[in-house]
Amino acid sequence: MRTQVCIVGGGPSGLLVGQLLHRAGIDTIVLERRSRAHVLARIRAGVLEDGLCDLLRRAGVGDRMDREGFRHTGTVLAAAGREFRIDFQALTGRSVMVYGQTEVTHDLYAARDEAGGTTLHEIDDVAIEGVDTAAPAVTFRQNGAARRIACDFVAGCDGFHGVSRRTIPRAVRREYERVYPFGWLGVLSETPPVNDELIYANHERGFALCSMRHENLSRYYVQVPLDDSVAGWPDSRFWDELRARLPARIAEALVTGPSVEKSIAPLRSFIAEPMRWGRLFLAGDAAHIVPPTGAKGLNLAASDIHYLSEALIAHYAGDGDGLLDNYSDRALARVWKASRFSWSLTTLMHRFPDQGAFGQRMQEAELNWLEHSTAAQTALAENYVGLPY
Ligand code: FAS
Ligand code: PHB
After folding, report:
1. Are strands 47-48 and 70-72 parallel, antiparallel or unpaired?
2. Which bin fits 383, alpha (ψ -120 to 50), beta or left (φ > 0)?
3. Continuous segment of H or E residues that includes residue 110
4. Closest approach atom of ligand 2 to CA 212
5. Quick one: which of 101, 174, 181, 282 could link to 287 by a disulfide (CB 3.0–4.6 Å)?
6. Burial of 375 (0-12, 13-18, 19+ CB in 10 A)
7. pLDDT of amino acid 352
């Protein structure tokens, strides 16, 4: 088999770059380890920056998002029994879209079907070869048969546990990591959201987040120890703990119901440099992971894909390889800034094992300053709605 760009990974990064390249007349093949059903069953991000929304519209997959998504012009922060709102629109002139990653991925798969794009699912033993030559290739096994795709370029969109990043020689790769000493227990419930905007809560018992997918589907999270398990969290315990971490007004308004999904995700900050090695280009979680506190994971994948698709389209249009050559530096500049924000908000909002009473009061003091400082709120808002591409 042969294609122009072989895309390893059929999550949002792989599908989005595939769709943007298709609309520019560039041929791709997507290789996805899992079944489509498995990929579409994942519950992940919920907040889209305008940059991602614009990219989805450019890719021809923004209609359902624009119909069914919710515009949020601000968010609520809570601490020490108090709550205050940060008005993104007033402070930055911008807002965010609440529309689940699951729906984004669904829309991207539907668009790829319509475009007649080749997507190979449930493949194994993917290996990326020859990216330091002019003739790279991707080998894999499908239904036990060995197969090979010759291509011009490889887009490594296979997430944190994929093979792409590891294809870059260890001696070349620089990795930066911070593993947080806690995780997020997330619950999806078919109940009306407790608030019409997200609520991020700092509490001495731990962090909590109230989010949503639509008017009758709520998404809630509580911080839990790393060694915790879902088995130890019957719904009743989850709702009691969530209430305990929210200001009284919000806790009293909470509508509970049976969980339809419950899972624990670890939190880490991770960045690998460079994001390019010869004709291999990493994008999304294959290159970086942020703690979900700042809602940046999916949105950073989007800016990577913006830079990568622009560079590949320029190459095939005969406009030279300048954008390919500076892809890694350009993408990493935004990745590091968004990672800093995600780390900073995680540090502010979570209970760390060794922080003690003094550390708790420092967090509450910073939140009190944030509540009363337009400058501080503008800084947070500018990062939350998304830094420029
Ligand atoms: P993905 O991991 O989504 O996709 C990579 C794809 O590659 C997967 O489908 C995988 O099956 C496939 N793959 C892996 N190895 C392969 C191989 N060898 N060959 C072929 N295919 C292979 N972000 C937020 O902004 N907010 C959140 O609340 C949030 N919550 C999250 C919760 C969890 C549990 C996780 C894991 C992530 C969360 N994220 C969140 C981040 C998430 O949204 C990612 O940023 C987003 O999925 C990035 O998309 P991709 O780069 O496509 O990576
Ligand atoms: C979510 O809705 O899943 C969500 C929203 C905002 C975050 C993290 C997760 O910061």
Report:
1. unpaired
2. alpha
3. helix 101-115
4. 2
5. 282
6. exposed
7. 97
- Of ligand 1's listed atoms, the one at least distance from the Cα of 286 is 51
Mean pLDDT of the chain, nearest integer: 97
Distance 198 CA to ligand 2 centre (A): 8
Burial 215-237, CB ≥16 within 10 A → b, else e? eeebbbbbbbeeeeeeeebeeee
296 lines ligand 2 (CB under 6 A): no
Closest approach atom of ligand 1 to CA 15:
52
Catalytic residues: 72, 200, 292, 296, 384
| Token code pair at residue 150 | 């010759």
Q: Is the CB of 198 under 6 A from ligand 1?
A: no
In terms of Cβ atoms closer than 10 Å to its own Cβ (0-12, 13-18, 19+), residue 160 is middle
CB within 8 A of 17, min separation 6: which ones?
A: 5, 7, 28, 155, 157, 283, 305, 308, 309
Query: Tell me, what's the pLDDT at 45?
Result: 87
Answer whether 295 contacts ligand 2 (Cβ < 6 A): yes
Structural domains of the chain sorted by starting position, each given as residue range(s) with its CATH number in brackets:
5-49+100-177+269-345 (3.50.50.60)
State how far the Cα of 19 lies from the Cα of 28, in Å rounded to an integer.
9
Give the three-class secondary structure for 238.
helix
Nearest to 91 by CA among 70, 69, 71, 75: 75
Mutate to test the pocket of ligand 1, among 17, 42, 44 (most ligand atoms within 8 A of CB): 44
Q: pLDDT tens digits, residue range 28-48?
A: 999 999 999 999 999 898 999
Over residues 73-90, the pLDDT tens digits come to 999 999 989 999 999 999
Ligand 1 pocket check for 298: Cβ under 6 Å: yes
Site to probe by mutation for ligand 2, drawn from 47, 104, 385 as the one with most ligand atoms within 8 Å of Cβ, is 47
Identify residue 177 by its one-letter amino acid code. Answer: E
